[in-house]
């Protein structure tokens, strides 16, 4: 029995998934998680550390890590890579000025060895704002089409209205489940 | 309602007198420890709890919230009289009897970290009624960013209680207790206690 099999069995026993949610500051990461969990989103201040949610979803125990995206915090992101099953990259689709910054940060993450096994969900957030770029436009700018050897999906959403959030998380959980819990 | 616990005589001010068990050991406990397992001075990372909140996940309604008073003067932990220690380390909650009928709750803990990074932060919390373990949490926060403010919300179904046990929890206030043990790596850095009652009328 190889090590990979053992790892799979350990995970399988607990049915736990670790999702890491990153993105530039003001992308709406905390709002995404709060809205998804039915919390009030009126007063959300910049995250100066992490917000973790532990919840049951579709029979799995999800640990969602939302880590602050300010420039000064990004160098700490690497401390949260270990054991990540899914990476959720949140994009402010109305922030055209920083889209290349957004692309550069994502490209760096995708090169990280410790995230090599993680599925990627890109949330094209803030679709409720007039002039927001579409998911297709963001897919092209971020060059998601050139991603190899990784399961990925881009989903339009609005953390403000909640549209698209369940679709995205659902895809991520199913994708991870099919990769990791294949012996069920 | 939040108050202080009456646990006089349990406090120890001599560091040598503490026995700090390893995480594996506290995970076997089925009743509260008789005293505190580490001194307040063990918290060398300056971790401070800022708030604790419980919400009914079904309705979203906040059921309980307690936060640190930002106006309160800082306490000099090194010169704390032993009789004051319980006021700092032990908290009493009366949630009311209807709390025991809730299905799913979300408990949110907010804490701040001092100027140094915390390499591997872990919390183990054991909830007991007398010498019966009701619920156990074991959560690894891992790395904490220097000067960060962090939150953790655990959303979970309340354990289904045997009706007889449930009645006992109501009939014997403050005999439901918990120990919260915090480790950085292998070292215990904090140990707090809480006592619970389910008596307040709705």
TrEMBL record, chain A:
Binding site for GTP: 23-30, 69, 125-128
Protein name: ADP-ribosylation factor-like protein 2
Alphabetically ordered keywords of this record: GTP-binding, Lipoprotein, Magnesium, Metal-binding, Myristate, Nucleotide-binding
NCBIfam families linked: small_GTP
Organism taxonomic ancestry: Eukaryota, Haptista, Haptophyta, Prymnesiophyceae, Prymnesiales
Annotated residues for binding of Mg(2+): 30, 47
Record-linked PROSITE patterns: ARF
Family designation: Belongs to the small GTPase superfamily. Arf family.
One MF term in the entry's GO annotations: GTPase activity
From TrEMBL, chain B:
InterPro entries, A to Z: Ig_E-set, PDE6D_unc-119_myristoyl-bd, PDED_dom, PDED_dom_sf
Membrane spanning stretches: none
Domain GMP phosphodiesterase delta subunit: start-end pairs: 42-198
Superkingdom, taxonomy of origin: Eukaryota
Gene Ontology biological-process entries: cilium assembly; lipoprotein transport
A molecular function GO annotation: lipid binding
Keyword annotations: Lipid-binding, Protein transport, Transport
Gene Ontology cellular component list: cilium
Pfam families, alphabetized: GMP_PDE_delta
Protein family membership: Belongs to the PDE6D/unc-119 family.
Protein name: GMP phosphodiesterase delta subunit domain-containing protein
Species: Prymnesium parvum
């Amino acid at each position: 029995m190889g090590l990979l099999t053992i790892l799979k069995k350990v995970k399988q026993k607990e049915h736990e998934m670790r999702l890491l949610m990153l993105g530039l500051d003001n992308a709406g990461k905390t709002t995404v998680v709060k809205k998804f969990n039915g919390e009030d989103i009126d007063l959300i201040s910049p995250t100066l550390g992490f917000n973790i949610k532990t919840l049951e979803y579709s029979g799995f125990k999800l640990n969602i890590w939302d880590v602050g995206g300010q420039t000064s915090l990004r160098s700490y992101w690497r401390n949260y890579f270990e054991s990540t099953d899914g990476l959720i990259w949140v994009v402010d689709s109305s922030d055209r000025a920083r889209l290349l910054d957004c692309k550069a940060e994502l490209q760096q993450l995708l090169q990280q060895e410790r995230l090599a096994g993680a599925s990627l969900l890109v949330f094209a957030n803030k679709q409720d704002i007039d002039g927001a770029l579409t998911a297709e436009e963001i897919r092209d700018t971020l060059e998601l089409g050139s991603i190899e050897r990784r399961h990925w999906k881009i989903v339009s959403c609005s953390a403000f209205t909640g549209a698209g959030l369940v679709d995205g998380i659902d895809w991520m959980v199913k994708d991870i489940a099919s990769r990791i819990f294949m012996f069920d | 309602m939040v108050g202080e616990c009456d646990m006089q005589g349990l406090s120890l001010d001599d560091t040598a007198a503490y026995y700090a068990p390893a995480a594996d050991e506290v995970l076997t406990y089925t009743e509260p420890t008789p005293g505190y397992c580490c001194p307040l001075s063990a918290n060398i990372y300056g971790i401070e709890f800022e708030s604790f909140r419980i919400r009914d996940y079904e309705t979203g309604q906040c059921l309980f919230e307690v936060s640190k008073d930002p106006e309160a003067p800082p306490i000099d932990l090194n010169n704390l009289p032993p009789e004051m220690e319980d006021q700092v380390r032990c908290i009493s909650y009366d949630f009311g009897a209807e709390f025991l009928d809730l299905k799913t709750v979300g408990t949110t803990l907010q804490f701040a970290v001092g100027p140094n990074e915390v390499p591997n932060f872990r919390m183990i919390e054991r909830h007991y009624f007398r010498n019966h373990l009701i619920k156990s949490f074991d959560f690894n926060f891992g790395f904490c960013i220097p000067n960060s403010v962090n939150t953790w919300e655990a959303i979970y179904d309340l354990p289904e209680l045997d009706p007889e046990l449930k009645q006992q929890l109501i009939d014997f206030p403050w005999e439901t207790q918990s120990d919260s043990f915090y480790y950085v790596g292998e070292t215990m850095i904090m140990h707090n206690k809480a006592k619970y009652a389910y008596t307040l009328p709705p």
